[in-house]
């Protein structure tokens, strides 16, 4: 009830107003518009949104705090213990090394690699490897490595020093890691940075189609990129891979590669070539040729980049000569 209505009521009760007095006309009362402080449902909605945003921010901050980086200094050496070893084939192993805590990530940019260091026969041996795990994995890093045993290859009767050292490591023993290392950086959809050398600043390279030539364990840097790109729904960069091996049994991570090709048919193309193919083999055989590259990799162009990784014969006798023959320029080729 407003003040004038209240006063009239009092007058009528006391008999002060004449009986014949006409009733006063009052404008219709309108309810004031409710503000946020007067509307319970609106206030509740704002409160819920605010609390939700705060929780997400705090979770993000806590997540970052829970993800300490292992490779903080690219020149430092970090001793990491072997915690698991899996036999993938007669000469290939997956080695899992533990990080300093279950919450640690390795801290390796996509496109980079690590170095392993060990003193073998009184000599410091350093080898480069690309992990097949990523910074989505906490507490460990995985390497897939082919073991070069003694007296297997006539040109290398002593085998590989580092790979045999790793093969003989016991669970719990440590080896030094160093990194990140590398000249290639993948920043996002089709956006790469490439250093001309280890000391130069990266130069920007835009590519909408990545061609890949890999031999043996040279698949690991390609797998790192393939996994990263295909798990990002916003990244539509296309990839085409020629994967060379000696025998069908030597094809590493075949199941995963073929699953990616099946689930991303418009983004990832896969082709094999074998030195010794089985009967009925439906892919190529022998060394990588110009015709093979022309048929299965993107043509030369400003938005094309061909990545090459594998043993020296594949790089020097197959990949580079045939790429140059087909007109790929140096800025279209990157060799790990």
Could you characterize what this model shows?
- The protein is an alpha/beta fold.
- Helices cover 26% and strands 28% of the residues.
- The chain is globular, with a radius of gyration of 34 Å.
- It catalyses: 2 Fe(III)-[cytochrome b5] + NADH = 2 Fe(II)-[cytochrome b5] + NAD(+) + H(+).
- Residues 75-187 form the FAD-binding FR-type domain.
Provide a concise account of the structure shown.
This protein has 336 residues and is α/β, with parallel strands linked by helices.
Defining traits:
about 325 residues; single chain; Cbr1-like_FAD-bd_dom; six-stranded antiparallel sheet; 2 domains
User: Can you say what the CATH homologous superfamily of the largest domain is?
Assistant: Nucleotide-binding domain of ferredoxin-NADP reductase (FNR) module
Unreliable stretches: 1-21, 59-65
CA-atom Rg in angstroms = 34 Å
Question: How can the largest sheet be summarized?
Answer: 6 strands, antiparallel
Biased composition (Basic residues): 23-34
GO biological process, one term: sterol biosynthetic process
GO molecular function, one term: cytochrome-b5 reductase activity, acting on NADH
InterPro entries: CBR-like, Cbr1-like_FAD-bd_dom, FAD-bd_FR_type, Flavoprot_Pyr_Nucl_cyt_Rdtase, FNR_nucleotide-bd, OxRdtase_FAD/NAD-bd, Riboflavin_synthase-like_b-brl
Write the layout of secondary structure elements.
Layout (H helix, E strand, L loop, with lengths): L2 H12 L25 H26 L12 E12 L2 E7 L14 E8 L2 E7 L10 E7 L14 H7 L6 E8 L2 E5 L2 E4 L8 E4 L2 E7 L3 H12 L7 E8 L8 H10 L4 E7 L9 E2 L4 H7 L7 E6 L2 H14 L7 E3 L1
Parallel strand pairs: 10-11, 10-14, 11-12, 12-13, 14-15
Antiparallel strand pairs: 1-2, 1-6, 2-5, 3-4, 3-6, 7-8, 8-9
